[in-house]
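Lab notebook page, bench 4
Experiment: in silico fold of construct C2
Operator: M.H.
Input chain length: 335 residues
Purpose: comparison with the prior construct
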Amino acid sequence: MNRRRLLTAARQKLRDNPDASLDSIALAAGVTRRTLYGHFSSRQALIAELTQEAGQALHEAFAAARIPGADPKQEAIRAALEPARDEAVAALRRGQHEGVFASHLPSPVLAQALEALMLALAEENTGYTWTDPTGEAAASVLDDAGQKLLFTEARTVNNFAATVVDDDELSLIWDLARWSPSAANGQPLRVLFVRTREGKEPLIPHLDEGNRAKTLGAPVVAVLAYDVDFHEQMPAVFPARGEMLRVAFADQIEKRESVAAYNSALQTGVFLLAVRAAGLAAGPMAGFNRGGVDEEFFAGTSWRSHLVVNIGHPGTDPWFPRLPRVSVVDAVAWA
């Protein structure tokens, strides 16, 4: 009885405060410190049993959610994965021992979560069909004018006309850019549109000197950032396994930073194409003090700047001479 009360109290206290002392846990359970140590020889032993309980509960939840025979294809896939399951558990256990993987959940539970994620991704990949009876969408190709607008004649602009860029145009850019791909649909890219001279003034000192004048002359400046807390949105943007991914990323700030930076860079390429598709020109710049920009605009948030983009209509003589492209021979390989 006392052991169950101790575990219940520990679960509640540690949930509210991971650094809760054993004395506070004993007090919450209504027992003495001596009684607590009679059941658990150390804080580590108490947490180990809580972890084991949580892992077992998760294992049972997965098992309960699996309806035998409800999906013969998934059951067949699970059977095919059976020979590799023990090897996956062993690999995860070894990684936990070496400090490569987090150890707050038992390796069998992590292996089952990985298997569930693989099945979910397979289902997402095969669960949609074309609803285009005429075949026009599947057969369509961007016409020559579109290819020129987005690619072959598009250029980075160095000065801009005074033509106003309104909020409807900026909204169109984002409405196009937000459809970009990202891993597990995480969508970490965030955008701050700076539309006034007053808004630009705190930005200018953080730019490299060569970028300041053209930024002051641009109708709009977009500060592109990535959200290191993108995982909090996973249940909404990846309903099939979003909560599991949110929990998996929760205490892995360095991994979130890496994933967010990579995927926001991928989304940034689409953002630049969206600027062009909206009939505007872009001047992306990496020459700025990220720490200064973050402190100025994103202090107290989970956003981290990674690119500044001037946006507007091309001005007088806005382009430098076109530079060569890497040759196809050097850039493309065939197998």
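Observations: The radius of gyration is 27 Å. The domain at 1-65 is CATH 1.10.357.10 (Tetracycline Repressor; domain 2).
Next step: discuss at group meeting.
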